[in-house]
Structure formats: structure tokens, C-alpha cells
Write a structure and sequence with these properties.
430 residues; Rossmann fold; 7-stranded parallel β-sheet; 16 helices; disordered C terminus
Amino acid sequence: MYFDELELSDNILDALYDMRFDECTPVQERCIPEILAGHDMLGIAQTGTGKTAAYLLPILSLLDEGNYPKDAINCIIMSPTRELAQQIDQAMQGFGYYLGDISSLAVYGGNDGQRYSQETKSLKLGADVIIATPGRLISHMQLGNVDMSRVSFFVLDEADRMLDMGFSEDILSIAKQLPANCQTIMFSATMPQKIEQLAKSLLKNPVEVKLAVSKPAEKIRQSAYVCHDAQKQGLFKHIFNDKTLTRVIVFAGKKEKVKEISRKLKQIHVNAGEMHSDLTQAERDEVMFKFKSSQIDVLVATDIVARGIDIDDIQMVINYDVPHDVEDYVHRIGRTARADRDGMAITFVNPQDIRYFNQIEAFLEKDIEKIPIPPELGEAPEYKPVSKLRQKNGRHGRKDRGNGSKGKNRNNRRRKPAAKKKREDNDKRS
């Protein structure tokens, strides 16, 4: 489906045309009509499926065409991390390019007092769209800086991640301040019981849109080293003997491990930077800028970077440890092989992580290549898959996911965005 088949405002369609966005992703095709129709929504979709646009486009379109107060907060979008909040705000700027009267504000912690004062002023004046991390918004609420009595849209982005980070009570506290007629939209990469419970407490007769976790891009060459933890440093030396590797992300599950890896990489003269929650916002912005501008060759990070951060030219992703969730693996390696480029993904698999890696292989329905470790590193542990045992115990396999309902189109005929039509008319005259 094309965007100009949906009931989006002309200003939104003009922006999409300028950004070279023509076709909807599946999650956008299913969600946009339902949000435009005023339904509460629960969307189960992984990062990279276009879910940010799936809720931003219809909300901005409604704000553009509707009668919403100019002195009130009309939409609140909750984000689990500062990085994702910044990215949503950037997307907001692009999609809302022709929406001159609609303002947005990103509200997140880790800033100096001057920014907090700016946030306070903007909140009291009534920015149309607030993109906030839960802790920071709660802080403003406690000080009486936020009037939420006229909010029309409430969005929870990556709700599962917010609950994992301990924001459940904060989200419920925020939701209690919303008016009864507020339209609530919730997106999550997974559907555990806690998300179901949260959805039941926040959503009113929601439309559910579920998209199966997609397989990684075929362009990603996936491989693994089966090794002991003590051999991982030697594997780094082996890998980074290739001096052409300059766009690499190394993922680790815990921030303490990120710090350790970064230190060890610097010991072998690898130009590495680290990204984790102990850094201030200014420090995180600086690291990300240096990595994007190639001042840093290797970025060592927790899963903060795996979700929602767009960096197009990553050569290789290294998993220092095996994610215990298949979707986290897909998110991680999905940072490479983007924008029609090739990419590599290498995973270090210790004996304790073999069962988790085997689950990943079962999901991918293929055996990932096992590269022998260099002889000088000693003997590697044996890789013993456990899929047969799981099948025997009846615990193997994946659940089918249902399809969300499609909304109706204004008509079956494509129409051109106003900006595109004006350009074509001018071309005809010249």
C-alpha cells in the first residue's frame, strides 16, 4: 500500500514525498487507518518495522486537520531511553516539516539545569507533542509543571523495554493523570504476560496488530566462535588484525562488561568508545557523534544501541555474549547490512550460552557457521545442540502470530501529494 492511499493530511503527504517515502511497511499499513479512526491500539512489532511512523503520521495528521487547543499538551509519547526519545523527536521534525503550528519537545534526564528550565517553560506553554522518558516526566509532574488534563493521544513506545527497566509504576502514575477520552497507543517488541496486564489496564477495546519477528537480512553473514570466556580477548586480537574494520559495534548484556571490553580493546590499540547508562547525556551524545563521524572505529554498547538507533554503514556486529531472547539477537545484528550494504555478525558462544544460541538457530531454521578458533588460543569447547532434547520434551517450536485488521481507505484511487502535483504542473508549463 502507498501512503497517498491513506487518509493522511496533504501536509503530511507533502513531507513524505520530499523524504522519498512512498510505500507503507506492513505495520504502517495496518496501524495508520486504525489510529486515524480513533481506536486504542496494541501493536506487537520489532524495531526496524517502521512503527515510529506508524503512530506519528496519523497523530500528526489528526493534529494538522483537527481542532486541538494550542495552549495544551495534545500528545505524550513515552520512550524507554534518551536516545530513542531523541530519534522520535528527529522523526517528528521530518514528518512535521509542513506543520508550522505544531510544536514538539523532547524531555529526558541527564541534562544541565538550563535545559530543565527550558523544558519547564515549554511544558507550561503547552507543546503539542511531548516525547519523554518516564522518570523525567514524573519529575516535572511532581513539581506541577505539566497539565495533562487535555491530552488527546498517549503513546507507549517499546513498552516491554520500559517495564524491563522498572518503569511500570511510573507509567501507571502518568496514565492516571490522563483524561478518560484519551486515545492510547502501545507498541511492544514482545507480548509477555506483564505487557498483556498493562494493556488491559490502559487500553479501551484496543485493536491488536501483531507482526511476527522477521528474519535477519540475507545480506548479513552470520557466524560464531564457540569458545571459553578466557579466549574472547584472543579472538578480539584475531578479528581486529584486519585493519580495514572501522565500523564495528560490540554488544554486551551488562554495562560492567561493556566497560571491561572497551578497556581491553584499547589495550590492543583498537580505537573504541563505550555506550551505557552510567554516562551522562552529554557524554553519550559525544560518543555517538564520534562514532557516526568515524572518530571512533568500534562502539561497545549495551542493548540501548540495538533498539531504535539508525546507523547505516556498520561493517560488523560482534555479540560478546549470546542474547537470551531471539528478538534481541535480531535487533543486534540488524544494525549491519543496512541501506543495501553487506555486513557480518559474529557471536562468541561459551558453554553456558549454547542452549540460547541453539534457540536462535531454531528460530532462523538454519545452522549458523561455526568458525574454528585460532590454534594458539587452545582447545575450544564442544558445541552440543539441544534442539532434539527440546523436541523430545515438547518445548520446541514457535507460536503463530495473528494478523491485525486492516482499515478502510478513503478510495481505491491513488492521489498525488499537493507538493508533487505542483511540481508536475510546473514541469508541464516549462
